[in-house]
Automatic annotation (TrEMBL):
The keyword Mitochondrion does not apply. Pfam families: AMPKBI (PF04739). The keyword Transmembrane helix does not apply. Transmembrane segments: none annotated. This is 5-amp-activated protein kinase subunit beta-2. Belongs to the 5'-AMP-activated protein kinase beta subunit family. One of its GO terms (molecular function) is protein kinase binding. Gene3D superfamilies: 6.20.250.60. Keywords: Kinase, Transferase. GO terms for biological process: signal transduction. It comes from Lynx pardinus (Iberian lynx).
Length: 186
């Protein structure tokens, strides 16, 4: 008794049309003809065998899907292949050429307004350092609130109090936040 007929015998009622078997299958594709001979390509995949679709049993008893592949199935793939080859040729040409404009050996001369520009101002969300904030009485002072994502991986110099400078950096490891403090007497 085959595996398929054993399964069919054990199921009764309306479930028979919905029954599927999951097995490791070898699928054989006929991909064309070469010099009058058929060309085949094989592959293994974990798939389902619906009872209403054709299957083939091999000599070893393995149940394989039977798939009929027509030449018309590959017309879309041929068009996509041709299109990708054309687009890769144009992109290679664009990358090999130099950008337009004059080239020379003269050194660039900075104008006075370019040379002495001041650095940009600090964004306001980076000014809200969590170590400078006061904590509620009900909260544990050793626990800090969750930092804003833009505050991570930055070095902060905190307010100098009692002639001690404090540097801090906050890093995230998975779901935990670690704040490192460095104290330097001035």
């Amino acid at each position: 008794m085959s595996l398929l007929s054993g399964l069919m015998g054990s199921y009764t009622g309306g479930f028979l049309s919905q029954l599927k078997m999951e097995v490791l299958s070898m699928i054989i594709f006929k991909i064309g003809e070469l010099d009058g001979r058929d060309e085949f390509e094989t592959g293994f995949m974990n798939c389902f065998h619906p009872l209403f679709q054709p299957v083939v049993t091999s000599q070893l008893g393995t149940i394989n899907n039977l798939i009929h592949v027509k030449k018309s199935d590959f017309e879309v793939f041929d068009a996509l292949k041709l299109d990708s080859m054309e687009s890769s040729e144009t992109s290679c040409r664009d990358l090999s050429s130099s950008p337009p404009g004059p080239y020379g050996q003269e050194m660039y001369v900075f104008r006075s307004e370019e040379r002495f520009k001041s650095p940009p101002i600090l964004p306001p969300h980076l000014l809200q350092v969590i170590l400078n904030k006061d904590t509620n009485i009900s909260c544990d002072p050793a626990l800090l609130p969750e930092p804003n994502h833009v505050m991570l991986n930055h070095l902060y110099a905190l307010s100098i109090k009692d002639s001690v400078m404090v540097l801090s950096a906050t890093h995230r490891y998975k779901k935990k936040y670690v704040t490192t403090l460095l104290y330097k007497p001035i």
